[in-house]
Amino acid sequence: MTAGFFLMMGRCFSWLHTHVADGIIHIESPVQRTYTLGEFFDIWGQPLSANQVGPAHGKVTAFFNGKYWNGDPRQIPLLKHAQIQLDVGTPLIAPESVTFHKPL
Known about the structure:
Oligomer: single chain
Strand order of the largest sheet: 5-6-7
Helix content: under 10%
Structural class: mainly beta
């Protein structure tokens, strides 16, 4: 089974999506597997490489859970509560931490 789009109440969704502009990626897939940041960008038709994030061009520096990611940013795994930061160009911004609260 491949990941794809599904319909819900007349709208088209993807297994990988956001609800608001807070940067949190939601995974609501019937398949239990690890998706990547590159797959998320592909679904939404945006480029992601060592020199581009969406429309922004420049050297891309990636952080994964607060640590420098030394590899292709497309391969960053989308793990539960993983914190991913992509900086384009300089200056670099220190990785920020987000606290996830348990639902009531």
